[in-house]
Amino acid sequence: MKCRSxxxxxxxxxxxxxxIPCSMRGRKYxxxxxxxxxxxxxxxxxxxxLDDSTHVGKLIRNTxxxxxxxxxxxxNNTGIDYLMVSHAGELFKREILRQVQxxxxxxxxxxxxxxxxxxxxxxGGDNPSVTDIPGFAARFTPSAEAQEAASSxxxxxxxxxxxxxxxxxxxxxxxxxxxxxxxxxxGVRLTGSRLKTGxxxxxxx
Length: 205
Hints:
Blueprint: E1 3-4, E2 7-10, E3 18-19, E4 42-47, E5 55-59, H1 66-76, H2 82-101, E6 106-107, E7 112-118, E8 136-142, H3 144-151, E9 157-160, E10 166-172, E11 188-193
Parallel strand pairs: 4-9
Antiparallel strand pairs: 1-2, 2-3, 4-5, 6-7, 7-8, 10-11
């Protein structure tokens, strides 16, 4: 089959032909293999070390894939074709990224603005040049509509995290190794979480 304007023709019927994007030719879509897990919105609580009366909350993230999104669209909208929605989404993505690479800030389907920002501090003293810019990074600002949708969400489960100290590694600063061998009189680096110092000779280095 030959593509015309990016689409191959499959001779299903003479009067009605199903048009499939070239980029999707040969790809299989088994709707039964798309897994959607019904998960509870769970918030993990960590004790605030600066205020014993409060906790710091972290949302346990559950990712909804692009395939799942398309599946929902197809199931909830009669007559919508999975392949065409997938192809349209791919076209949106390509064009959005193309405009971002031109330096534009792009409104992403009303969900927010995708834009570029310097990747770090610009050095060069009093006379910096463009070569001193440490590259660029993508940034995203949610729209008011997205913020409103998020504000209406309610957590279904709270999980309190263990607050016991945890040492994940001990490094010998003299050798730079974490093999359990320490050098007398030399420094040691402890890596972990919820660690505290105590005693007369303790410190943070």
